[in-house]
Amino acid sequence: MIKRTLYFGNPAYLSLKDCQMVVRMPEIAKADLPELFETKTTKTIPVEDIGIVVLDNKQITITHGLLEALLENNCAVITCDSSRLPVGLMLPLCGHSTQNERFRSQLNASLPLRKQLWQQTIQAKIKNQAKVLQSQGCTATNMLSWDEKVKSGDAENLEARAAAYYWKNVFPFIGKPPAKCILQSL
Length: 186
Fold this sequence. Notes:
The protein is α/β, with parallel strands linked by helices. The chain has helices spanning 26-30, 35-41, 64-72, 97-107, 111-135, 141-149, 158-170, 179-185; strands at residues 4-8, 12-17, 20-24, 43-46, 50-55, 60-62, 76-80, 86-90. The protein contains eight helices and eight strands; from the N terminus they run E-E-E-H-H-E-E-E-H-E-E-H-H-H-H-H. A four-stranded mixed β-sheet has the order 1-5-7-8, with helices on one face. Mean pLDDT is 85; it is low at 179-186.
């Protein structure tokens, strides 16, 4: 089953009840609202369905019981600073057995397999960059030909060549003033 990613960017009270994350908004809790309305504004989410929780507000309260339940269910908890950038990551210490098996498989992979996987990763990256350029009306035929030429392990470093071409064309005005600014200064 695909785990859910939850983002909290507003003040919230997060707690645990019956293996469910309980989400309450403090503005609603403080307001004098009918009880029927208040019960509809409290949301519950099964902890086992949660994969990542992002906390992006200084006015979020989270209980230790909820943190414990999230970590026991192999959930990552990420905290952000005032600039909305991640500053902390909480992960379970005794990771899930499936994750440990994946790590072991990755560590024990043969060199030819790692090179083939790297080749596939670079090919996908170049294809995606080409699609972004094409969606902006830029030509990307050279990138698509580089994608086909990537060899095992990317010995010719086509990833770097594609990245240089991509960044130069995705933001063509970086380092140069846009035409609008030149006209305004005349």
